Amino acid sequence: MAEQKQPTSAAPDAVLRALADPHRRQILRLVQHAELPAGQIAASFTLTQQAVSQHIGVLKQAGLLTERREGTRRLYALRHESLEPVRELLSEFWPDALSRLKQAIETDHPRPPKR
């Protein structure tokens, strides 16, 4: 039976620090839709396996990744809900961003009248 490790939710500051590094953002892009083994993640980089492991550790510590063991393999996936504290933080500074985006799109691309 595979062992699943669920990290706890982290503060927005830890998530923002983890997201500050472009390699870590790329790791999250790789695992955003499906679990990947550590070796496959590492193969996507010119970094050493140890450097990739350190980046994965930072992402796990920030609560951005889940780790599931399957035999000797470790599988990683993005915890989408871990981004919510950052979304909430940013919404404090940018509360009407989506409505302004919607208005701009509708202004630039009006819908044709209904018949």
UniProtKB/TrEMBL annotation:
SMART domains: HTH_ARSR
NCBIfam families given in the database record: HTH_metalloreg (NF033788)
Gene3D superfamilies: Winged helix-like DNA-binding domain superfamily/Winged helix DNA-binding domain
CDD domains per record: HTH_ARSR
Record protein name field: HTH arsR-type domain-containing protein
Residues annotated as domain HTH arsR-type: 4-98
Superkingdom classification of source: Bacteria
Xref: Pfam families: HTH_20
PROSITE patterns documented for this protein: HTH_ARSR_2
Keywords: DNA-binding, Transcription, Transcription regulation
